[in-house]
Design a protein that fits this description.
Helix content: 40-55%
Strand order of the largest sheet: 5-6-7-8-10-9
Strand content: 15-25%
Number of helices: 10
Largest sheet: 6 strands, mixed
Oligomer: single chain
Mean pLDDT: 76
Radius of gyration: 30 Å
């Protein structure tokens, strides 16, 4: 700390370095990473949107697809605390950029496939991340990515395939994912601006194994979401094959996961209510969420009339009169026992 103090040219730069160091330490202690995925359709034209998105959400990893023309010096100056990895596309409109916070140990795996950026995250459980942009005119076939899979692996980006509406293309992608035991993580809303299709999502292997290393409530809740993801995988298979048995199994797993998640939230609320007056993170979380429901209001009581008939509007006198009245009202009664 003393060396940083003497090495800094200004006080603000020294405080900034200390702030970043504190932030890195707190981030490293967490077992999860905030990851954003955005298909920008031309980074030079939508740079302002990317910047607003990144400043609103304090991300750990940002995956940008279809970036087109890229000014790496501008990205480095805008995000000095992030490592930038770029993979060119097949044409002037393609390309993928992955930004990773510097305190996250990561290295790039060289890959000659266009629009495919592969990063190894050296975490407690080593995880491989692949950012992808797969245009309709791609030369890539899904089997080209099979050799890059690991026990803990996730691929995310723009697949340009709707898993429920694109027929043969969806079957090809899902069959490849099934062969590798990958589970899809699909958002509930449409992600295509040109149609009502969902083409931006993620496929993962071994993500549940990584979540098992988490402790406390986060591990429990993520296991419930893993059940939901598994039910969606079975539901997609049922839709492709028309199997009634798979559809019923997907519904059964989904109902179990929702019930367990609801019960878990009720248990957490009960625990927060019980610990709300104790010092600690639980009570801070409880009051930070409930304080917005409190409203400042003035009392509707404007005055009191004392027993002798005198009216008073002085707040101190009103408080004294009220205190005397309730002290007299709730004092211990005196019992009169007649002599036998």
């Amino acid at each position: 700390m003393v060396e940083e103090w003497h090495a800094s040219q200004t006080l603000s730069s020294c405080l900034s370095n200390w702030f970043l160091s504190t932030r890195r330490d707190s981030r490293t202690a967490h077992s999860f990473l905030y990851t954003l995925c955005f298909n920008v359709r031309g980074l030079d034209a939508r740079w302002a949107e990317v910047y607003l998105l990144s400043t609103k959400h304090q991300f750990d990893i940002l995956v940008l697809g279809e970036v087109g023309k890229v000014d790496l010096s501008l990205i480095g100056a805008t995000y000095p605390s992030y490592h930038c990895f770029y993979q060119a596309g097949e044409n002037a409109f393609g390309g993928v950029i992955v930004l990773i916070r510097q305190n996250i140990p990561a290295s790039r795996l060289l890959c000659s496939l266009p629009n495919v950026c592969i990063i190894d995250l050296h975490l407690e459980v080593p995880t491989r991340l692949i950012g992808i942009y797969a245009p309709a005119s791609k030369s890539l076939v899904w089997n080209d990515l099979s050799r890059f899979t690991t026990p803990s692996f996730i691929i995310m980006g723009d697949f340009n395939v709707d898993l429920e509406k694109d027929g043969d293309k969806a079957d090809t992608l899902l069959n490849w994912a099934d062969d590798l035991d990958m589970a899809p993580f699909v958002p509930d809303a449409h992600t295509s601006l040109r149609s009502d299709r969902t083409i931006d999502y993620a496929l993962g292997i071994g993500i549940e194994n990584r979540f098992r290393h988490m402790k406390g409530p986060q591990r429990v809740i993520i296991n419930r979401f893993s059940l939901l993801a598994h039910s969606r995988t079975i539901a997609l298979k049922a839709k492709r094959t028309g199997s009634v048995r798979l559809r019923e199994e997907a519904r059964r797993i989904r109902n179990i996961a929702r019930y367990e998640l609801k019960r878990f939230r009720q248990e957490q609320l009960t625990k927060q209510l019980a610990d709300r007056h104790k010092s600690g993170k639980e009570s801070n979380l409880f009051w930070s969420r409930t304080k917005r429901h409190f409203r400042k209001a003035s009392a509707s009581l404007r005055g009191l009339i004392s027993p002798d008939g005198e009216s008073s509007k002085d707040p101190q006198r009103i408080a004294n009169l009220t205190a005397d009245y309730y002290e007299q009202l709730f004092k211990e009664p005196t019992l009169m026992r007649p002599h036998p």
